[in-house]
Amino acid sequence: MTSINPKRVNGTLIKHSTNTQPQSQIERETIFLVKSSTPFVSALKRITKILNKFNKLSRTNKRFQNGDYKKVKYITIKGMGRAMEKTLSLGLKFQEELQYKTEILTKSIEVLDEYKMNKDENGNSESESDDEDKETLFQKRMVSCIEVRVWIKRE
């Protein structure tokens, strides 16, 4: 793996997503990932629905009151890059208007970029059909990330 300057690479950039796949069933139900294209109101409603699952007064979701779900203390909202502002706005909405206790954490996450080179060894432009013959370069870079923890009200 070579370190390259992305401004000098004459190739096609293929961005890979981070490895943000939650590991367990509980993590899948308590982590909410925000993208820049996620609608704010829809995200607010979905996070509220997740928080309401853990409410003791809820009669429809009894499985979220027993076992390992009893140990869950907060819902995590994560956003990277352009989605950080939306993630912070969601956290502030829950803190100020809905009166939830929130914590905001900042992180840096390593992502991998892939570059497919456009030119062959003679400097000639290659055709689109020669994708498998193109040289591939990988570069790691750090991306900033925000994690907002919204603490569950167990009433």
Automatic annotation (TrEMBL):
<keyword id="KW-0819">tRNA processing</keyword>
<protein>
    <submittedName>
        <fullName>Ribonucleases P/MRP protein subunit Pop7p</fullName>
    </submittedName>
</protein>
<feature type="region of interest" description="Disordered">
    <location>
        <begin position="1"/>
        <end position="20"/>
    </location>
</feature>
<dbReference type="InterPro" id="IPR020241">
    <property type="entry name" value="RNase_P/MRP_Pop7_fungi"/>
</dbReference>
<dbReference type="InterPro" id="IPR036882">
    <property type="entry name" value="Alba-like_dom_sf"/>
</dbReference>
<keyword id="KW-0539">Nucleus</keyword>
<dbReference type="Pfam" id="PF12328">
    <property type="entry name" value="Rpp20"/>
</dbReference>
<dbReference type="InterPro" id="IPR014612">
    <property type="entry name" value="Pop7/Rpp20"/>
</dbReference>
